[in-house]
């Protein structure tokens, strides 16, 4: 099979105009094809026999699908899609009362970066947080049920692209904005950009018991674009680092105008300090949020020059350094927190921008790593042996190098154009050094063709040896921006929703199913069990409900099959409604019966040999 690789070269012209040239390189067939023996050994590495499990969960962002994808590693089998920012008829997400309220009418989201809750800088496996770049939201997924537990809207933001990341003990979930916007999203002419537009960072807190977010405070920053960010670890645990682009304040044609400066900035913020100021009441209430300007407090914010238009910034597992990847400058820059703190201590500033002290690049930078021909570094992951792994979007490869020395150890192609990669526990204080998945933006001819647009692609590498070994490619729906690979022992999913006699709206036996009418509201307290619905135990047709046209109907359904994986669905024919109840769960479907007629109700989730019989009727009496 002849393979084609895409190589896009980005070159700067004299006028600063950037032209992206795309050309194709033919991979040599012999080079590419591995031997049958090789294939066998690769296959054995990832084969998970029936009855055994993968070692890792890969929790991957679903990009503009708004969903979370759950994969097993190393098999790369997709296990589940968890709807987060987008309604999902397969699970009734966004149809039942609770999830509908949570989605607040939004029908899409742009899920960029997952962040698993951490304790001491390591995944604790309890919750996963996600940012919605499309509609300014943050979500929490409860990893005991893989259900979205809460969603919070973030005012004053223009797409929280640079989040989410959590501080060492999940004190905060931080979400820096991508686009600067006037506060409150108000109207302000683009000519007033520098004065009126702000780049805001949201600092959210999550209460694990109540499973609820609250917005602790926001940080008001200059109208730069914040691209990616990370939380410090250990010695740097009080800090967050963020890359910026568009320090040119361009308001149009960003491709060119935001790529003028040779240097943009890394911004360092001390969240601990700001937390203290907020506690003392040193903030302004703006748009209902506690807003702090870090420039008002000494020691809260610094900038460090970095080569132009950086993308990712990642803190090393020991917390001593951070690495910026230069989207347009083909190098990784290693910075030292120690050196930054020293310069701060001595007030050794080279400049000031927007009232922010700028630390001297030469004094904070440790080294620039510039593998020849490696172009478009985007993000960095780590292993347990002091190595970093960088994805190269333009030259389509993964580069392994030593953090201490900058020595390049290995380079392997990826197919094609990787954005992020994810290594097993590779962004924690304790990476495992086992697997790395490159999350590619382009699949080209990797899989059976499905037309002009293809899935994205993921490459699995074994990184346990000195050299990386490419094992396999797997398709993935758009768009895998980032993933975290979490050891299976850290996630403790429930088998059931526990029976709770006091749960609101729950009915736990067939005999207790009943219907209550209050004015034009009809509340059905029903149960679902193999293989029937019971809405009204006293009726001689317990699985039929009659209402009047225009009534507001509530189906409060409890699944009383306390048996793992026996989920019942609930679809109403012609009413465009479907939801589900998982074992032991109670859910409510609320709607106005505006259509008169006779509507079959049926279980949409195959649950037993008599699943087809699991049905009933909704009868809506016409008004007149
Ligand atoms: S970003 Cu997607 S490749 Cu929007 Cu995390 Cu870097
Ligand atoms: Cu219950 Cu099918």
Automatic annotation (TrEMBL):
Record localization: Periplasm
EC number(s) stated in the UniProt entry for this protein: 1.7.2.4
PROSITE patterns from the UniProt entry: COX2_CUA
Pfam families the record matches: nos_propeller
GO CC terms in record: membrane; periplasmic space
UniProt main location, coarse: periplasm
Keyword line: Copper, Metal-binding, Oxidoreductase, Periplasm, Signal
Cytochrome oxidase subunit II copper A binding domain segment(s): 519-624
Source taxon at top rank: Bacteria
Residues making up the signal peptide according to the UniProt record: 1-20
MF term (GO), any: nitrous-oxide reductase activity
Annotated protein name in UniProt: Nitrous-oxide reductase
Species classification: Bacteria, Bacillati, Bacillota, Bacilli, Bacillales
């Amino acid at each position: 099979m002849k393979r084609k690789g895409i190589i896009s070269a980005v070159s700067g012209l004299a006028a600063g105009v950037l032209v992206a040239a795309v050309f194709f390189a033919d991979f040599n067939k012999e080079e590419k094809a591995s031997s049958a023996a090789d294939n066998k050994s690769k296959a054995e590495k990832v084969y998970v026999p029936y009855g055994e499990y993968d070692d890792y969960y890969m929790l991957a962002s679903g990009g503009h699908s708004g969903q979370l994808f759950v994969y097993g590693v190393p098999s790369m089998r997709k296990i589940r899609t968890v709807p987060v920012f987008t309604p999902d008829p397969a699970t009734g997400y966004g149809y039942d009362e609770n999830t509908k309220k949570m989605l607040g009418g939004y029908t899409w989201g742009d899920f960029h970066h997952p962040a698993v809750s951490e304790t001491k800088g390591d995944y604790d496996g309890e919750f996963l947080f996600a940012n919605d770049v499309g509609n300014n939201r943050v979500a929490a997924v409860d990893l005991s049920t893989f259900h979205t537990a809460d969603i919070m809207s973030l005012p004053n933001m223009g797409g929280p692209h640079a989040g989410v990341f959590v501080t060492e003990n999940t004190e905060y979930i931080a979400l820096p904005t991508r686009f600067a916007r006037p506060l409150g999203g108000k109207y302000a002419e683009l000519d007033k950009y520098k004065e009126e537009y702000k780049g805001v960072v949201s600092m959210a807190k999550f209460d694990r018991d109540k499973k609820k977010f609250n917005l602790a405070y926001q940080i008001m920053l200059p109208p730069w674009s914040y691209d990616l960010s990370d939380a410090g670890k250990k010695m740097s645990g009080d800090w967050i680092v963020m890359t910026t682009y568009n320090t040119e304040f361009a308001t149009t044609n960003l491709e060119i105008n935001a790529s003028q400066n040779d240097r943009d900035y890394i911004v360092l913020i001390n969240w601990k300090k700001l937390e203290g100021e907020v506690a003392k009441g040193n903030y302004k209430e703006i748009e209902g949020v506690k807003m702090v300007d870090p420039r008002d407090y000494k020691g809260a914010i610094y900038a460090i020059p970095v080569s132009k238009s950086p993308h990712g910034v990642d803190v090393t597992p020991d917390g001593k350094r951070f690495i910026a990847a230069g989207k347009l400058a083909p190098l990784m820059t290693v910075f030292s927190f120690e050196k930054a703190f020293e310069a701060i201590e001595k007030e050794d500033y080279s400049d000031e921008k927007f009232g922010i002290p700028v630390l001297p690049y030469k004094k904070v930078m440790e080294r620039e790593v510039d593998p020849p021909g490696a172009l478009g570094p985007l993000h960095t992951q780590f292993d347990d042996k002091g190595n970093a792994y960088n994805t190269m979007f333009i030259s389509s490869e993964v580069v392994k190098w030593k953090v201490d020395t900058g020595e390049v150890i290995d380079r392997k192609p990826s197919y094609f154009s990787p954005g992020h990669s994810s290594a097993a526990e590779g962004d924690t204080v304790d990476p495992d050094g086992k697997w790395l998945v490159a999350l590619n933006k382009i699949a080209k001819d990797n899989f059976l063709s499905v037309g002009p647009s293809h899935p994205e692609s993921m490459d699995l590498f074994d990184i346990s040896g000195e050299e990386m070994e490419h094992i396999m490619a797997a398709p993935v729906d758009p768009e895998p921006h980032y993933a975290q690979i979490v050891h299976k022992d850290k996630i403790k999913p429930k088998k059931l929703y526990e029976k709770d006699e006091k749960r609101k709206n729950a009915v736990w036996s067939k005999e207790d199913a009943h219907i209550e009418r209050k004015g034009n509201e009809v509340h059905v307290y029903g149960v679902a069990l193999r293989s029937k619905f019971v809405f009204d135990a006293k009726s001689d047709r317990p699985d039929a409900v009659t209402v009047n046209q225009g009534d507001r109907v509530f189906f409060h359904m409890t699944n009383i099959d306390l048996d793992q994986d026996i989920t019942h669905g609930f679809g109403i024919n012609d009413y465009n409604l479907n939801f589900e109840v998982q074992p032991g769960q109670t859910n409510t479907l609320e709607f106005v019966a505006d259509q008169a007629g006779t509507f079959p109700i049926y279980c949409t989730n195959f649950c037993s040999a008599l699943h087809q019989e699991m049905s009933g009727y909704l009868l809506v009496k016409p008004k007149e």
